[in-house]
């Protein structure tokens, strides 16, 4: 071991003995010794995303002990530090504001402190992209430790997936089938243990993406938080974190365009969250990889759905893990040449080597490529006169919805509907049950003012539920469209991420209730049947005002943020790459 470590510039710098003393002294006050910090042992940060305010990741507070054991046993020194908390469900006005804030904070810590490598503890939706974005910007050796999903949850004898059960209960409640107490009980039942959401929501999706990219040990993503294997994975991840410092194996070696295209394909096969689109795009931006919005169509759309996991399928994370988890899904794709297995991964081996012998053990949960749950199950990319870019998650389009909207003979994949436009979530809740809107199955629900600028942050509100009266008639989903996002746990066939958003002058800003929308999935188009002259007239009128920023960060975020098609990254952050290649000044 001869390579001089980054941390030695702080602690073992003969040019600056006085400063080395200063840097060292306060680490001593809890018992670290100068010898440990000055003998060239890798100092490994543990970016702690868990706290009482981040319950999905809270188990990492305990797992960190096993990570530290692994780091110590491999000869490193662990130093744990907190990340900005991100709690998807509870953060108002939306946790989307936190991804870029946590990113900025982590970049500063990784860059400005004597760290040689980092273990990124991830779980709840945006913790994974925030951590990986920062690891790329700094580009020191980094490895992801997922926290794992909660155990499989049941309510009244049926599987009750996180989030998904809430959407289901909302419908049952609207239909008068359950009481408030039963609604609350189902929510409680859906959270049976430590861990993050147990559906293939955004959390499990993004941890699977980290694994698909090659940034975690094989099989890491889906191990339930409460399993003994999770603690063992924590230990092994800690050990490996030290080795990758010695090998100088950095994110920039692993996060290539081929790795991102692999992740897009894996997301389709998993039935992963639509939030993977902005998050993977943002991770690519900071990795210096060009990911085109059309890549989702070109590389992702034709991949079949293989994982039978809610919300696109039936099962939950625990059963998915026991069936083989992410490696088993990747094994299927690799076997038919739909995966590039040649790239390096954080294990030190190629992806193909990682996947050897990882065939699924439960074919009810993970289907063979030749016998999928659905063919061509990736995101459909849409464009038209309302937006340049939007996506639709095809794997959650139900047979009933297909039959009603997408199966007109001679016009397959094509339907028209009357737009009912809502200005934000408050407007939706206030008016959705207004009989005057005459909402029926020929309507398309549209929400605007829900994008990165408009909300601000971009909210998961596009998966709008039909009016109660329609639900009572058995119509549980209408086509929806919006410039916000949808929950990863929702099975709504929503057209989301319309970019540019209405608050940026996108087409939704001039759309009016009563306009006819034509959606043509076969052509990848969504248009309002409004004349060009009429559009110009409407554009000249004042747009809907966006709510004022309530905090300094909201204001800064709005000045800086790109559209969802571009990953909703911060403009000024994009120019910084591999900043650790130059040491900070003393
Ligand atoms: Fe945190 Fe789903 S709310 S993982
Ligand atoms: Mg969510």
Structure description:
- This protein has 586 residues and is an alpha/beta fold.
- It has 3 domains: 41-152 and 192-355, Response regulator (Rossmann fold); 154-190, no CATH class; 380-540, Glucose Oxidase, domain 1 (3-Layer(bba) Sandwich).
- 36% of the residues lie in helices and 12% in strands.
- The chain has 22 helices and 14 strands.
- It has helices at 8-11, 17-25, 34-38, 60-73, 96-112, 127-138, 164-174, 180-189, 202-213, 228-247, 251-254, 257-270, 276-287, 295-300, 317-322, 325-335, 351-355, 399-405, 424-431, 468-472, 532-539, 552-560, and strands at residues 43-48, 77-82, 117-122, 142-146, 154-155, 158-159, 379-382, 389-393, 414-423, 443-448, 480-482, 494-499, 516-520, 525-528.
- Strands 7-8-12-11-10-9-13-14 form an 8-stranded mixed sheet. It has a 4-stranded parallel sheet with strand order 2-1-3-4, sandwiched between helices.
- Helix 6 (127-138) packs parallel to helix 9 (202-213), helix 6 (127-138) runs parallel beside helix 13 (276-287) and helix 9 (202-213) runs antiparallel to helix 12.
- The model has no long low-confidence stretch (mean pLDDT 96).
- The site of magnesium ion has 6 residues, from loops.
- It comes from Tabrizicola piscis.
- Keywords: Iron, Iron-sulfur, Lyase, Metal-binding.
- Residues 481-500 are annotated as: Disordered.
- The strands making up the biggest β-sheet line up spatially as 7-8-12-11-10-9-13-14
| Termini Cα gap | 26 Å
Mean pLDDT: 96
Number of strands: 14
Q: Superfamily at the CATH H level of the largest domain?
A: Response regulator
Tell me the strand percentage band.
5-15%
- CATH architecture assignment name of the largest domain: 3-Layer(aba) Sandwich
**Uncertain stretches of 5 or more adjacent residues:** none
Under the CATH scheme, which class of the largest domain? Alpha Beta
Radius of gyration: 24 Å
- Characterize the overall form: globular
Reported by name, the CATH topology of the largest domain is Rossmann fold
- Report the major sheet: 8 strands, mixed
Q: What number of domains?
A: 3
Estimate percent helicity: 25-40%
List the ions, cofactors and other small molecules found in this model: FE2/S2 (inorganic) cluster, magnesium ion
Q: Helix- and strand-based class?
A: alpha/beta
- Put simply, the count of helices is 22
